[in-house]
Amino acid sequence: MGHLNQRNIIIGVCGGIAAYKSAELVRLLQKQGANVRVVMTDGAQAFITPLTLQALSGNPVHIELLDTEAERGMGHIELARWADAIVIAPATADILAKLANGDADNLLTTLVLATAAPVFVAPAMNQQMWAQAATQENCDTLRRRNFLFIGPDAGEQACGDVGAGRMSEPADVVQTLNAHFPSRALEGLHIVITAGPTREAIDPVRFIGNHSSGKMGFSLARAAIDAGASVTLVAGPVHLDTPEGVTRINVDSARQMLSACENACSQADIFIACAAVADYRPVTVADHKLKKQGTSGLTIELTQNPDIVATIGQAFPNLYTVGFAAETQNVLEHAREKRTRKQLDLIIANDVGNNAVFGQDHNSVTIIGSELELHLPEASKLQVARTCVEALAKEYRRTH
Ligand code: CTP
């Protein structure tokens, strides 16, 4: 059984043409062993009947906020407490606005306010409505409040338009939910993860560095801990809290990072190199702050840093090694080449062009292995990390 077995999931259905997809979503969740209860808005009933969703979920459908019958069975507060997750699919522009506003004017909006469970939204609307500043600002507000977005996908729309706004396919929604709920996929395994930038000193006050925020590596550490691994995080200089349960080793330079990894990896099963390691360092580090020399420029001679992931892979041949490829062009091609050159088991490719990734909370990646090429749509770095961990665990177990 998967991670959704015996999970209590509320599906919130709103009034949009994509409401027909919620029938398939309910069916797929049932198949995964989840307990599903459906909440419909008034608008939703114009598109799909409560009877259909009742038959598929095996439970009465909840519609009214103040229904004396329903409140005697499972009232709205009990329902909000019962849920392990609320999934609003399809989520219309109207419900997004209501949620951003904190409204409690129907059962669904009230449940969202009353629950402590994570809330997922799968938007579905006309592409122009999705692109509107009002909708986008509502989504930004919701993301800041930790609502988890699934999609929307782009493509041909029911209204004839083409663009972003199609509800994600039910199978993709289920995949995201699966990834959110931790499995114990890495139980018993020790994982070493590098994260953040390295700093290569020029003198006591200056260094060569890069924009890496460390968020992806820290998200991976959190996802790996949740999946049952024991995790050592070798972190470059970043200001992020250590996820609970993770052993953190702080380093500055690439050479310090390598030495920390060499120690940690002697006991490890999997090594994930997520750090943005500086490729070069100054040949000499000045003892004192460098002073300006008249008006002439300054030349700093650089030498190459060791390649941490390649060195570790050679030193520990049985270690399962995973690298990242941050690229700005021909992303997949460069990533495949890097995986072979560095002899990695897996490489996770991401496009860092236009500052789209560094420091941001969202990311979209492709996981590449010898027989695997899995593209993950844009999602929060934690969601992406959870999906990566699941895929990695599957590949690791397949080969070990
Ligand atoms: N990496 C490493 N040590 C280095 C440089 C990179 O361990 N000195 C790791 C990164 O953590 C990442 C992978 O190698 O997992 C690819 O990093 P990237 O910077 O994309 O590749 P480079 O080898 O630096 O290649 P290039 O800069 O030429 O693209």
Oligomer: single chain
The name CATH uses for the topology of the largest domain is: Rossmann fold
Structural class by SSE content: alpha/beta
CATH superfamily of the largest domain: CoaB-like
Distinct ligands, ions and cofactors found in the model: cytidine-5'-triphosphate
Low-confidence stretches: none
Q: Can you identify the CATH class of the largest domain?
A: Alpha Beta
| Percentage of residues assigned to helices | 25-40%
Q: Total number of helical segments?
A: 14
- How does the overall form come out from the CA principal axes? elongated
List the helices and strands and how they pair.
Layout: E1 8-13, H1 19-31, E2 35-40, H2 50-57, H3 68-74, H4 76-82, E3 85-91, H5 93-101, H6 107-114, E4 119-123, H7 127-131, H8 133-144, E5 148-149, E6 153-156, E7 162-166, H9 170-180, E8 190-195, E9 200-201, E10 207-208, H10 215-226, E11 230-235, E12 247-250, H11 254-265, E13 270-273, E14 280-282, E15 302-304, H12 308-315, E16 320-327, H13 331-341, E17 346-351, E18 362-369, E19 372-380, H14 381-399
Parallel strand pairs: 1-2, 1-3, 3-4, 4-5, 8-11, 8-13, 11-12, 13-16, 16-17
Antiparallel strand pairs: 6-7, 9-10, 14-15, 17-18, 18-19
Helix pairs in contact: 1-2, 1-9, 4-6, 5-8, 9-14, 10-14, 11-12
